Amino acid sequence: MAQNIAASRLQGTGAHALDLEGVGRQFGALSALSGINMRIAAGERRAVLGSNGAGKTTLFNTITGDFYPTSGRIRFFGEEITTLAAHERIRRGLRRTYQISQLFTNLTVRESVYLACRGVSRRRFSLFRPSPSDGAMAQAESIVHAVHMDDDADTLVGTLSHGQQRQLEIGLALAGAPRFILFDEPAAGLSPTERRDLIAILNALPHHIGYIIIEHDLDVALRVSEYVSMMHNGTVFTEGTPDEIENDPAVQQIYLGGGHG
């Protein structure tokens, strides 16, 4: 029964957050992605796993518009976005984080989240200071709480630990009511305690916000996803539930080095 709850969602009403058809990406003679077909339901939590060089980050970059695919098409909630600029995809509710933190170190946590909320609002070009009733400020306070940073709201970003900066990045991705988020290795460099906190944050996200997570830490990836796509050499070679993927001999051979304890 558990086998294909997520899969049935992909094949059900046709309400997909992301629909990739034959997506490929060439860099000269190098084929970084080839024939990627992937459907992800609205609200679904998907892990995309694979060894280094499998094409995971290239896949993210084509979805978010950092560069365009050289073949295939991408739809976001039914709208084709294959050649849309990255900022247009953001306006439609697509967000991402990056492997390397990209933060303003001289701002506080609260200021950073507020600017992210303001940046995707209709009043983003206003020069007036926020009032106590400013909707973006209220949203920022809610996000700071959601990523467990209430005690650090007035702390300068440059003084935060690596784990706290990762939490803040998730907060920035939540700005402006996103519909779907791509998380690129959010657990990289985290301590065991910080990993547990990350899992709690991701699992507590509103159910209408779907996401894809790229993650090398399987204990994190398999605990925050309901369906998994395994990549190898720029293609998706198998998919399944977390239990199916963890116990798949081919996955263990290619990704886990023969076993996973």
From TrEMBL:
It comes from the Bacteria. One of its GO terms (molecular function) is ATP binding. It holds the Pfam family BCA_ABC_TP_C. InterPro entries: AAA+_ATPase, ABC_AA/LPS_Transport, ABC_transporter-like_ATP-bd, BCA_ABC_TP_C. CDD domains: ABC_Mj1267_LivG_branched. The keyword Secreted does not apply. Residues 18-258 form the ABC transporter domain. Keywords: ATP-binding, Nucleotide-binding, Transport. This is ABC transporter ATP-binding protein.
